TrEMBL record:
This is LSME1 protein. The gene is Lsmem1. The chain crosses the membrane at residues 65-89. It comes from Lophotis ruficrista. InterPro entries: DUF4577. Keywords: Membrane, Transmembrane, Transmembrane helix. Residues 36-55 are annotated as: Disordered. Pfam families: DUF4577 (PF15145).
């Protein structure tokens, strides 16, 4: 009986294996070059998402845009709150003025009532009747 050969002679298998080894060594080299905390260097197609644009740059732009929008929103909110506080203070001042006028008018009305009563008493005492 013949022993079957352990080697399989396929024409492209050896070259594909060599390419696989070289590719694995390249990936290992990329992992060794990267610092511990940063992500490994990826192919350009993986970093761009296939669109040709760098996603890290767009992420930074998105963060900056968010930050600027957040700051502008805070400034506008602060301006609106300041305006509302200003209106509340102005309204309180106007109400104080109106209440002081009402108090002074109430005093004037009381004085007029007293004068009217005095005139009526004087007229009744003098004997002039309607």
């Amino acid at each position: 009986m013949e022993r079957p050969s352990l080697e399989i002679n396929l024409p492209d298998t050896q070259e594909e294996g060599k390419l696989y080894v070289v590719d694995s060594l390249n990936n290992l080299n990329k992992l060794n070059i990267c610092p511990d905390r940063s992500p490994p260097v990826l192919d350009e197609e993986e970093t761009t998402g296939g669109t040709g644009e760098n996603t890290t740059g767009s992420n930074i732009r998105n963060h900056c845009l968010f930050f600027v929008t957040f700051i502008l929103t805070l400034i506008i909110s602060l301006a609106l709150v300041s305006f509302v506080i200003f209106l509340i203070i102005q309204t309180r001042n106007k109400m104080d003025q109106i209440s002081s006028r009402l108090i002074s008018e109430k005093k004037n009305i009381e004085e007029l009532k007293k004068m009217n009563n005095m005139i009526l008493k004087h007229l009744n005492q003098s004997g002039i009747k309607e």
